[in-house]
Design goal:
Largest sheet: 6 strands, mixed
Helix content: 25-40%
Number of strands: 20
Shape: rod-shaped
Distance between the termini: 34 Å
Structural class: alpha+beta
CATH class of the largest domain: Alpha Beta
Strand content: 25-35%
Length: 359
């Protein structure tokens, strides 16, 4: 009959009878939950790679410069430019690597470019020109690495393919190449997809931690996502609200602080709960048995924190909320008793006054 904002502490603690796992938060469980970050680090390690060293592929466009020392025998017959000391040079029209991996050089013929570096092609052309030119020197530049690209999508100024080259190798290099992101940095995540595997990085962490600014590989897909994470705060707190937080995450202490903390007049110190659908793998790693789970492998779990224990203050800082969590603070039993006594008083007092007045 008494009004209340949610279940009592005792009612939540009996939820395990309905198949919901109720776990008291202690240092052991709290720090084991952080092992999910260790899984992330292992996943990140698989994505770490050495800086991409561009090699020429099909469709790449090459610029070729040929120099000949005097007496210039070969280039003097071509449209060329003279330099001091009698050195003559020529710039060939841009050469596109064909489907077979070759380029065609006048008076030299077909030269294989596929899989080679520019300096290797330079030496090959010099070797072939040595028969018809006087001490030729050749410089090969790649003007466009069209064969070594990554694809950038999502909340960026320009979604397109970006060639990986000598100056564009890392995640931030590529994002800068497309003009940057269009969403708030603290609410942006970057998903990198590589050969069927993927990893998600908060952009704010990438900017503050150079280790996360990973080197990319040809064929990578970069999806920039504007992601608002939120948790719902209910019960005996300063404010009941849906709390949006940063993509990199938020601790339980930060969430309660933003919600105005616990109401010291009605909150139950032993009744702080976090309702969450937890991954089965995490409960398996904790050795926790469960009866029910969803089709996608998530288990309904209630984490309980006893704020009357001084250790809980440290656990508040270490426990991280996840997107979709519900934080609930139950009211103290004495509050319900006070409501009951108040109701009885409201019923008895008029009767008592009527009796007094009737005398």
């Amino acid at each position: 009959m008494l009004s209340q904002s949610g279940p009592t502490t005792a009612a939540v603690l009996t939820a395990d009878e309905q198949g919901i796992v109720v776990l008291p938060l202690n240092p052991e469980i709290t720090f084991k939950l952080k092992k999910e970050k260790e899984l992330f680090r292992k996943k990140l390690k698989a994505f770490l790679a050495k800086p991409y060293s561009p090699k020429i592929g099909k469709g790449d466009i090459l610029e070729i410069y040929i120099y000949e020392t005097p007496p210039a025998v070969f280039l003097s017959s071509l449209s060329s430019q003279g330099y001091g000391g009698g050195v003559v040079s020529a710039v060939l029209p841009p050469k596109i690597v064909d489907d077979e991996g070759y380029i065609n050089i006048p008076f030299v013929g077909r030269v294989k470019a596929l899989g080679k570096r520019p300096e290797e092609i330079s030496r090959e052309i010099e070797r072939k020109l040595a028969k018809i030119a006087n001490h030729p020197q050749v410089i090969v530049k790649v003007s466009n690495f069209t064969s070594s690209t990554v694809t950038v999508l999502g909340h960026v100024k320009e979604s397109r393919r970006v060639p990986l080259g000598y100056n564009t190798k890392t995640l931030l290099d590529v994002l800068a190449n497309v003009g940057g992101v269009t969403s708030p940095i603290n609410k942006t995540i970057v998903k990198i997809i590589r050969k069927g595997q993927s990893i998600t990085l908060p952009l704010e962490d990438v900017l503050s931690n150079p280790h996360l600014n990973i080197n990319l590989k040809p064929g990578d897909i970069i999806n920039v996502i504007y992601k608002t994470k939120s948790a719902t705060i209910l019960g005996a707190t300063g404010r009941n609200m849906e709390l949006e937080f940063e993509a990199k995450g938020i601790s339980l202490s930060q969430a309660l602080g933003r919600a105005g903390g616990l109401r010291d007049d009605i909150a139950h110190a032993k009744g702080l709960f976090v309702f969450r659908f937890e991954k089965r793998e995490i409960l398996d790693s904790l050795g926790i048995k469960y009866k029910v789970h969803t089709k996608d492998g998530r288990v309904p779990v209630v984490y309980r924190l006893d704020l009357s224990d001084p250790v809980s203050v440290f656990l508040l800082k270490e426990f991280e909320l996840k997107d979709g969590d519900i934080v609930y603070v139950s009211t103290a039993p004495a509050v319900q008793l006070g409501k009951f006594l108040s109701m009885i008083r409201d019923i008895i007092q008029p009767i008592f006054m009527i009796k007094v007045l009737s005398r």
